[in-house]
Amino acid sequence: MAWIERASYASPWSIHSIREELYTPRSTVLVAVLDRLPMTVAGYLCSRTIPAQEPGLSLFHLLKLTVHPGCRRRGVGSALLASLIEEAWRDGRIHSIVLDVARDNHAAVKLYLKHGFRWAGADGKVMTLLTGTSFLPTMGKG
Ligand SMILES: CC(C)(COP(=O)(O)OP(=O)(O)OC[C@H]1O[C@@H](n2cnc3c(N)ncnc32)[C@H](O)[C@@H]1OP(=O)(O)O)[C@@H](O)C(=O)NCCC(=O)NCCS
Q1: Would residue 141 count as lying in a domain?
Q2: What is the dihedral angle through the alpha carbons of 76, 81, 84, 87, rounded to the nearest 10 degrees?
Q3: Closest residue by Cα to residue 135 from 28, 59, 47, 62
Q4: C or N: which end of the chain has fewer Cβ atoms within 10 Å?
Q5: Of all atoms in ligand 1, which is nearest to the CA of residue 72?
Q6: How far apart are CA 109 and CA 127, in angstroms?
Q7: What pLDDT score does 52 carry?
Q8: Per-residue pLDDT tens for 2-36?
Q9: Average pLDDT, the chain
Q10: Which domain holds residue 21?
């Protein structure tokens, strides 16, 4: 995962941040594996559950969706996102999935729109997309 981070972002998560994400109780980490032995990771997704302020209103905050540059345009990102969406609606307590994406990240924006995400707000060059209900509570850190 750390290697994919470094290949994909100007400011990649450190190994420490990745480890923290893996062990945070409210974190969901999905990994797309190409080969099991040796394990080859093609991409991953990290999401946090933002607890309900009112019953039934918890949401997933999608923090990361990254596919190894050599594995892009093969449906890996779609598969990871579809798995998160499926898990969210199966859980029953999750109302929405929300994420922030740079406006000029056309690949990611197109992917999210294709999976039903819609515009929910913007802050400068970053926009917020949401799928599920239109309810968007104020999100705290972590
Ligand atoms: C965004 C990202 C996760 C997409 O992963 P991927 O595995 O290549 O995506 P998929 O192959 O599942 O593509 C699904 C759809 O997304 C859109 N898409 C993906 N990459 C695209 C690109 N380079 N240009 C235009 N559309 C693109 C297309 O609609 C595509 O469907 P299609 O192939 O039928 O046209 C990947 O490009 C990536 O890791 N980027 C760097 C990290 C990043 O920006 N993450 C998002 C942060 S919010």
Answers
A1: no
A2: -90
A3: 59
A4: C
A5: 8
A6: 10
A7: 76
A8: 999 999 999 999 999 999 999 999 999 999 998 87
A9: 90
A10: 2-97
Domain membership of residue 30 (yes or no) is yes
Distance 55 CA to ligand 1 centre (A): 34
Task: Pull the structure tokens for residue 105.
Answer: 């990240």
**How many structural domains does the chain have?**
1
The residue whose CB lies within 8 Å of the most ligand 1 atoms, and thus the one to mutate among 80, 106, 110, is 110
Q: Indicate whether 122 belongs to any domain.
A: no
User: Average of pLDDT values for 70-76?
Assistant: 96
Question: Which atom, in ligand 1's list, is nearest to the CA of 102?
Answer: 48
What number does the ligand 1 atom closest to the CA of 79 have?
12
116 lies in some domain: no
Read off the amino acid at residue 98. Answer: V
What percent of the chain lies above the pLDDT cut of 70? 92
Query: Which one of 11, 45, 78 would you pick to mutate in the ligand 1 pocket, going by the greatest count of ligand atoms within 8 A of its CB?
Result: 78
